[in-house]
Amino acid sequence: MPVPILLVTGFLGAGKTTVVNHLLAHAQGRRIAAIVNDFGAINIDAELIAGASDGVVSLANGCICCSLEGDLLRTLSTLLRRDPKPEHIVIETSGVADPADIVRNLMDPVIVREAPLETVLCVIDAATPPAALEDALQRSQLRVADIVALTKLDLADEGAGARMRQAIRALRLPAVVVDARHGEIPSALLFPANVERAPAPRDPGPKRPSEERFETLSWTSDRPVSLPRLQQAIGKLAPKLARAKGLFETVEQPGRQMVFQFAAGRATLAPGEAPTPGAPRARIVFIAELGVLSKAELEGVMEACVAD
């Protein structure tokens, strides 16, 4: 039986990982395989983890999760050969990826026969200014979507969701728009019961020239950071950042790892798991538009965070 694919797209920091986490943690008996660009970003509850091999993490609820290394079609082929075979496959794209290219690859006749693209979900931060939808990449992410999920409504002002819905309607897209509080979306929308029907034909549109818009800069330290200093540093860097995420220990709470996320101008901290032996005490990845933030500037600002 064919294994339907759910493609999850959306801009940097929109909340894609939260949606995928929720799907895997509430699989309701379904065997779901998730393919993600950065497995480290997936934060599955510890009690769901069962084991790992060959880059594939098995979850105690029957689901699996693997990182996307190399060719997407080769990764799909590996998953489809597993026994038992997954019942659904979820692909989480990078926030800077044009999903039209992935849709085009998934239209390969061999793939369609074995793993048809059933649903495309575009995740959007409800607090995003409607004008941001004029961006060519975000427009492409919306254009291929069957469902648009508005996330982070609890962090946005009261009228943000209504303004974003109006902006999406103005684009005259056929997609269904739903609220996704805390990453929750009705499973019936994402996993239709009738999986044996032929998938709807899709037109990903003309292939656009690839454009390198963003770059990734990493910073690590073998010493813990001062939390007040880190907050000051992020405040300085925020105007130049598209996204940031990382793990670190603080001098205020030694031996306890914190998870740091920055998206859409908002920074959050949450307690993490125990520090990994031998790993740097602080490691943060920053994403910015090309040429906006230099490595020297980043290191100069971040080194001031390290505890004396």
TrEMBL record:
Zinc chaperone that directly transfers zinc cofactor to target proteins, thereby activating them. Zinc is transferred from the CXCC motif in the GTPase domain to the zinc binding site in target proteins in a process requiring GTP hydrolysis. CDD domains: CobW-like. Pfam families: cobW (PF02492), CobW_C (PF07683). This is GTP-binding protein. GO terms for cellular component: cytoplasm. GO terms for molecular function: hydrolase activity; nucleotide binding. It catalyses: GTP + H2O = GDP + phosphate + H(+). Residues 214-306 form the CobW C-terminal domain. SMART domains: CobW_C. InterPro entries: CobW-likC_sf (IPR036627), CobW-like_C (IPR011629), CobW/HypB/UreG_nucleotide-bd (IPR003495), P-loop_NTPase (IPR027417), Zinc-reg_GTPase_activator (IPR051316). Belongs to the SIMIBI class G3E GTPase family. ZNG1 subfamily. Keywords: Chaperone, Hydrolase, Nucleotide-binding.
